TrEMBL record:
Naturally occurring in which organism (per UniProt): Panicum virgatum (Blackwell switchgrass)
Membrane topology listed for this record: Peripheral membrane protein
Summary of the function given for this chain in its UniProt record: Causes loosening and extension of plant cell walls by disrupting non-covalent bonding between cellulose microfibrils and matrix glucans. No enzymatic activity has been found.
Domain of life, per lineage: Eukaryota
Name of the molecule in the record: Expansin
One Pfam family cited in the UniProt record for this chain: Expansin_C
Residues in the signal sequence: 1-24
Length: 258
């Protein structure tokens, strides 16, 4: 059954969702709804609560989504990838047949308690909801529909090149943005070590995909030890040279497995 679902045609997806839910698998198909934002060119999706900044420049493009509170998990979901299909059985009018789209979580869709959850407050807890970049949404939904029922599952993130690190902040406050993370996409823990520092020091999630250290690291080469949410750990030894300045970004040539 698991093998059949891994290769499932879209028509089978809903059956697999129910079967997988019964089996308690991770990455199972689940139900949610999806709307869109940010305009036809997705320009309004730049920035966002994960802190990725310019999504075109960072390689996320227009296949992105803002997640409701229930899915965003305080930023822990930043970078995760989801495959979505429109639930055509529930909504034959606004669902496009036979297509799917995969998006990366780059933003938070906040609740609005002044609107009822079933009449516009789509992102209110406990609803699972994807507010997708419009070009991604239009892959599976018809524009006039505005909102569609979807079934979705977590999938591995496929990335080109290695994990990247951007150093922001100021003295005694290194704010490190981690981007282009393949595999699970999301980070569980992160440590930093300076070239003149004997030990690894743990970093804390500051916001979105930004992790901070309160140590004075100016003038030292930096190594990072990153553990992603499926447990894989990579040491990015001296990925940042001692000449680094705040505001600079550095690409590694290491990447997590799918
Ligand atoms: C919540 O919804 C109301 C009604 O549509 C709107 O006027 C208000 O601006 C919204 N609040 C936020 C924070 O978006």
């Amino acid at each position: 059954m698991a093998g059949a679902c891994a290769r499932a045609a879209l028509a089978l997806a809903l059956w697999c969702a129910l079967a997988a839910a019964a089996a308690g698998q991770t990455g199972q198909w689940l139900r949610a709804h999806a709307t869109f934002y940010g305009g036809a060119d997705a320009s309004g999706t730049m920035g966002g609560a994960c802190g990725y900044g310019n999504l075109y420049a960072q390689g996320y493009g227009t296949r992105t989504a803002a997640l409701s509170t229930a899915l965003f998990a305080g930023g822990a979901a930043c970078g995760q990838c989801y495959k979505l299909v429109c639930d055509r059985k529930t909504d034959p009018t606004w669902c496009k047949p036979g297509v799917s789209v995969t998006v990366t979580a780059t933003n938070f869709c906040p609740p609005n308690w002044s609107i009822p959850s079933d009449r516009g407050g789509w992102c209110n807890p406990p609803r699972p909801h994807f507010d997708m970049a419009q070009p991604a949404w239009e892959k599976i939904g018809v524009y006039r529909g505005g909102i569609i029922p979807v079934i979705y599952r977590r999938v591995s993130c496929v990335k080109k090149g290695g994990v990247r690190f951007a150093i922001n902040g100021h003295d005694y406050f290194n704010l490190v943005l981690v981007t282009n993370v393949a595999g699970p996409g999301s980070i569980r823990a992160m440590d930093v070590r300076g070239s003149r520092t004997p030990d690894w020091m743990s970093m804390a999630r500051n916001w979105g995909a930004n992790w901070h250290s309160l140590t004075y690291l100016n003038g030292q080469g930096l190594s990072f030890r990153v553990t992603v949410t499926d447990g894989q750990t990579i040491v990015f030894a001296n990925v940042v040279p001692p000449s680094w300045r705040f505001g600079q970004s550095f690409a590694s040539n290491l990447q997590f497995s799918l």
